[in-house]
Amino acid sequence: MEIKRVIPSGYCKGVVRAVMMAKKARKDHPGEKIYVLGRIVHNRYVAEALELYDIKTLEGGASREEMLEQIEEGIVIFSAHGISAAIKQKALDKGLKVIDASCEDVIATQELIKKKLAEGYKVLYIGKKKHPEAEAVLSISEAISPVYSLEDIAKIEAEGKIFVTNQTTMSLFEVRDLFAAIAERFPEAEFEKEICSATTQRQQAVIDLKDADLLIVVGDPGSNNSNKLREIGLKNGVKEAVMIEDASGLQEDWLKGKEKVYVTAGASTPPYLTDQVIATLKKYAETGILEKTSVEISKIL
User: Would the pTM count as exceeding 0.90?
Assistant: First the structure.
């Protein structure tokens, strides 16, 4: 069995920046309480690793505003997915110190949308429902209409100038199809594809796989870009594609009879997890035994 790592894969610059900002916050403020409003990136192991730095991640289905109500003092870090101006201001009004770890690509999309709104455009925004990046964008203005599926397009009421863009971690194919459907209904609409370069490069690397018997995506179930990598693999000729959080998720039935196995990872997946998966696969290829593994949280960051 031949095992190959898909390049590029794993951490993107926005994730690295957010994690480094959190670690620096602890270094610069050794005695203060530090909270992250939602997972700083979509990977539960990163959140668990931040606990080792005494940085608490607030989550559990509550809105960003509800989570903020739980913080009475200290420092609040906003995740890489972006945050609304109203939530940031509310944190400042509470007297909290604020660290905004929003990805620069996410901020750029928000600024583009604000520019188009100021120019009088109605904005259609393609995203994933309840995703924090999409929620932050939709909080900018009521003149932004969310598009989550083809069915949503028929419900949109819009006149005058229309501008269409998207969440940075969407599938290339999903955005293409939704752009086409919107263009059919609103022929004069203007489009700007805002899939970030890291997402595009990782998706393209999977599209380019032509001989994979099995594609293994290492990523958190809540990671949109990780899920898209698996979907894109299946749509582009990969015979079989699975997603796992770590090496303990590997199943021997997947591996039997496979000649070429490729491993990729979502942009929020720590390199340690991907390395562990590849090492476990190589050991299986040599011995025919799939070893049990466990994650050492201290090695995540």
Answer: yes
